[in-house]
């Protein structure tokens, strides 16, 4: 029997977490959005408000609907806010230790029947499941950036994830207006295993002076019909995130084809992380 989902907990109010909270509230769910600091919540809520306002300006949402959506999002600092959650999606920083700690805590505070999902792009779901006593109800729910726009949710089945958990997660993704596609718990899943080598290769081409950043991106945009070039996309994703994912692929497979480009490492050393810091391969 399918259990009804009414309240969705979201851990982390960054770009991904606030995007997930937005689509969940827009789909009619009550949302509890938790972060460690009030200012992070403020920033997340401001991004949601701005996104929804764009839809109001374009006539796709009424002012009342916008108010109702925002009204369904309750912000929280305390973990106890998740006591009533029927489904929790974790979207904290891409750090295996931090995420495992979040899962240990969620396992204590969220009722045992609820599913715990991670938006991780590269950390094994099986590992996060093992930090809990409900590894059959731990699953990957990998949204793409920008969450309100992108159709895909990559559903990742950990070794211990049950069929029922996968099914309920697929259903939820559909109710959020997304298209779920399933894969196994393999490094980088499918999305990043295929995407990151392309981005890395574009950075190698830039490092070697094969072409300018504009030419590299232009060739991929116009030649392959990609909505944006790989360097601009790396800036959108965050260069630190790209490096972290490449490191996981490199370590897990032990294959040199995944070695991160030194230029990517230098940009991260410099703190040029892309759009979020105002400078990456481009200036913002
Ligand atoms: N939040 C909400 N909506 C946004 C948005 C954001 N951050 N950015 C753009 N949009 C909306 C705009 O409002 C606009 O909506 P309408 O067409 O309905 O009016 C629409 O998206 C298109 O935006 P723009 O016209 O401003 O710009 P664009 O046509 O260049 O599109 C884009 C922007 C959607 C980001 C597009 O360039 C694109 O699809 N890029 C590729 C994104 C991508 O590949 N994402 C996956 C990254 S990988 C990942 O996330 C996973 C991982 O693990 C690393």
TrEMBL record:
Q: Which residues bind NAD(+)?
A: 12-17, 35, 94, 99, 121, 145, 276
Q: Where is the 3-hydroxyacyl-CoA dehydrogenase C-terminal domain positioned along the sequence?
A: 188-284
The record's annotation in InterPro entries points to: 3-OHacyl-CoA_DH, 3-OHacyl-CoA_DH_NAD-bd, 3HC_DH_C, 6-PGluconate_DH-like_C_sf, 6PGD_dom2, NAD(P)-bd_dom_sf
Does the record carry Chloroplast as a key word? no
Q: Which Gene3D superfamilies does the UniProt entry name for this protein?
A: N-(1-d-carboxylethyl)-l-norvaline Dehydrogenase, domain 2, NAD(P)-binding Rossmann-like Domain
Q: Membrane-crossing residues?
A: none
EC category: oxidoreductase
Instruction: Give EC number(s), comma-separated.
Output: 1.1.1.35
Domain named 3-hydroxyacyl-CoA dehydrogenase NAD binding: residues:
7-185
Could you list this entry's UniProt keywords, alphabetically sorted. NAD, Oxidoreductase
Q: What is this protein called?
A: 3-hydroxyacyl-CoA dehydrogenase
The species this protein was found in: Pyrinomonas methylaliphatogenes
